[in-house]
From TrEMBL:
Enzyme Commission number, as recorded: 3.4.24.-
Domain Peptidase M12A span(s) in chain numbering: 3-220
InterPro entries registered for this protein in UniProt: MetalloPept_cat_dom_sf (IPR024079), Peptidase_M12A (IPR001506), Peptidase_Metallo (IPR006026)
Keywords from the named record: Hydrolase, Metal-binding, Metalloprotease, Protease, Zinc
Organism: Funneliformis mosseae (Endomycorrhizal fungus)
Active-site residue numbers: 89
Name of the protein described by the UniProt record: Metalloendopeptidase
Name of the top EC class for this enzyme: hydrolase
Superkingdom of origin organism: Eukaryota
Amino acid sequence: MGAFQKGTALWPGGIVPYQPNENHPFWSVILKAINEMNNKTVVKFIEKTVQPDYVYFTSENSGNWSITVGKAGGPHQVNIDKNVRSLHELGHVIGLVHEHQRQDRDNYIEVHREFIDSNNEWNINNVINTTEIEYETEYDVHSFMHYWDTAGVSDKVKNKELAKRIATGIATIGISEMKDHVEGRSMVYKRDRRMHIVTSEFLSPLDIYCINNVYNNYAPTS
């Protein structure tokens, strides 16, 4: 489960107003992510009425991102230009940081910096010190806040045949071969090197536990 960083502004009462945008090309995907959060946690995304602090969704050709982690104050932009990982960005909206950037991550995953494009290093290599963390659960490779295992990989590496094999079905590679050939993957799960790490479109049990615990015990009431 992703961690909450100290000083991150949480949404009072777990209520996150949002501006509907039915013209967004991936609005149905965004609504599925909102429903996943609303149905399984104490955090509730509600349609905006007069609230000055709210989330709005854009579709600029610049990837999926949230303008900040936690409540920004005023309009809070979330950009979604792909039909995947909308839930991940909602995680940032409510205050979660990346699972794979926790300080204890090296106990669970190998990070292969040699395959990562320099422009993407900051989103994978940087580690959040434990002293900066407000709350976390045990490491969860299935968390929706964990990046997929080819995230950040450079185009040069992606174009190699082994990278293609890994991206399309790593079961084609034997476990003995996988141990030595990780090219094409920025992250490898140590407990099961054959496992394909994905960014889930659903909340894991630890995701749900962590979000509920933090918002029940740490979020302001108003």
